[in-house]
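Section 5: illustrative case.
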């Protein structure tokens, strides 16, 4: 369903982009792992859903030490997912269905099986091959201590010692050595990779850990360090992304950056007209289900983007984040990696009601929306058995943190088929919960009250409501517990987070609600509505 917004050069400013975690989306060859054949088979479903683009987490050749974010070859598709020809078919077939493709690039690191790193290990200390990474001698009398006091993003020491005594830096897993972005060969290689995928028809690139790429060449200790952070948000990054933007502009492509920064002014620098097009909005994603905090998150987000003229992005969940239905059903409805724990109770009925309201809220805000696979089915976080967990976050925490596998469980497609229609003839790579068949897409598409039906109708209306693509947000109420705003003169979104039902604003028509209105027409708690006025 290719509409005017999708066809326009600035389609990305108000697009709804669906995130595909290939391994868990659909299994086309029955081996237990999702693949590109499986995605191609579900393109009619995605077109019916009404999305504008697909963002694929890495499908490249990888040992899968970190779910594909440990890339061994950016120009090859991992055999578990298919091959390059299959990827090219998927890009082309999706475009024929009116759906653009965004691929994932991981510039901070590669796999320890990448040809560059294997050559660096073989070449030894002081070699040109090691200059592509961050190899250093250790500290202590015998070099037995790490070169500095940094901590891994996954917890623990971000240094590993090799047989010849040197250490290499990895801000993430041991199997993900960090690249040295001060080396011109690293920059050239990534620019070539960008061209490779743009030439194959992708519309954009998502940049993983975009603010962590550049490092202080001295790799100083954090304790007592003065001046710019040695590896977060360094000024050198902007020259890198300006060179990337020139490549994207050649192909009419776009970038979206994963940029976690608390400083609004520093964040906005990445979105200047000659750098990235958009960046993920983690303020909104991690915000608790609280009207005051959500309004502040919305206002802060719009204020951050206004000086550089970039559109905001809105996202409730992704492949790293506890699923919305589960998170919103907990006592603490915010999100932080440090707070993830086993055994946290959740009221899934409450969480579902709030997730439905949050869907209408996010889809009514100005900017683009990212929808993680399975959110349109209202899937909760899966409780993965301990002996099936694969996420390195779990292992690096010595089993304290549950990791991210609970939001990566394979999707249920058909209630009466083995493994809920995921497509496998063998046990999938992660087990599906026992109640997954009751949440299957084939059941939900026949139920007008399902989460899937809500998303389909919301996206259908979003495509047709011009105000949602062109008009700014204007708040209409200061009443505690309520979020009420207009988009233009004739469209209002109201969300009730207060204890009691609320009167609807004056209107001519109720366009869509996340749940039934009260008998007297009032808006119940944890319910959202779109109104024509």
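Designed sequence:
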């Amino acid at each position: 369903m290719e509409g005017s917004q999708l066809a326009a050069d600035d389609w990305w400013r108000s697009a709804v982009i669906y995130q595909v975690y290939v391994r868990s989306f659909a299994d086309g060859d029955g081996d237990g792992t999702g693949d590109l054949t499986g995605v191609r088979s579900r393109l009619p479903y995605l077109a019916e859903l009404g999305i504008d683009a697909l963002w694929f987490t890495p499908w490249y050749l990888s040992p899968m030490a970190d779910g594909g974010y440990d890339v061994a070859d950016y120009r090859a598709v991992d055999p578990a997912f298919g091959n390059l020809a299959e990827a090219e078919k998927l890009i082309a077939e999706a475009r024929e269905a009116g759906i653009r493709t965004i691929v994932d690039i991981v510039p901070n690191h590669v796999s320890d099986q990448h040809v560059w790193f294997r050559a660096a290990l073989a070449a030894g200390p002081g070699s040109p091959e090691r200059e592509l990474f961050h190899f250093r001698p250790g500290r202590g009398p015998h070099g037995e201590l790490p070169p500095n006091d940094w901590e891994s993003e996954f917890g623990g020491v971000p240094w590993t010692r090799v047989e010849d005594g040197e250490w290499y830096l990895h801000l993430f897993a041991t199997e993900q050595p960090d690249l040295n972005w001060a080396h011109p060969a690293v920059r050239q290689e990534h620019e070539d990779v960008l061209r490779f995928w743009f030439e194959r028809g992708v519309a954009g690139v998502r940049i993983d850990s975009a603010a962590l790429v550049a490092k202080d060449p001295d790799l100083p200790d954090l304790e007592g360090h003065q001046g710019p952070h040695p590896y977060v948000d360094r000024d050198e990054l902007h020259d890198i992304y300006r060179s990337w933007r020139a490549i994207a502009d050649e192909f009419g492509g776009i970038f979206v950056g994963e940029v976690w920064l608390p400083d609004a002014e520093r964040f906005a620098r990445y979105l200047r007209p000659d750098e990235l097009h958009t960046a993920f909005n983690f303020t909104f994603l991690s915000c608790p289900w609280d009207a005051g905090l959500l309004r502040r998150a919305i206002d802060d987000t719009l204020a951050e983007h206004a000086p550089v003229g970039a559109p905001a992005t809105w996202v409730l969940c992704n492949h790293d984040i506890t699923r919305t239905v589960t998170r919103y059903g907990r006592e603490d409805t915010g999100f932080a990696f440090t707070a993830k724990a086993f055994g946290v109770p959740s009221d899934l009925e409450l969480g579902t009601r709030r997730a439905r309201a949050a869907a209408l809220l996010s889809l009514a805000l100005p900017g683009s929306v990212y929808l993680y696979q399975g959110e349109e089915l209202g899937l909760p976080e899966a409780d993965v058995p301990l002996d099936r967990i694969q996420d390195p976050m779990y292992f690096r925490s010595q089993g304290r943190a549950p990791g991210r596998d609970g939001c990566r469980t394979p999707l249920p497609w058909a209630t009466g088929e083995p493994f809920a229609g995921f497509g496998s003839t063998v046990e999938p790579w992660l087990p599906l919960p026992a109640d997954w068949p009751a949440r299957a897409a084939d059941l939900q598409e026949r139920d007008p009250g399902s989460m899937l039906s809500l998303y389909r109708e919301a996206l259908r209306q979003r495509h047709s409501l011009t105000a949602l693509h062109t008009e700014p947000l204007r708040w209409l109420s200061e009443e505690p517990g309520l979020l009420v705003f207009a988009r233009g003169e004739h469209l209002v979104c109201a969300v009730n987070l207060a204890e009691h039902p609320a009167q609807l604003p004056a209107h001519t028509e109720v366009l869509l609600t996340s749940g039934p209105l009260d008998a007297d027409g009032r808006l119940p708690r944890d319910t959202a509505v779109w109104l024509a006025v």
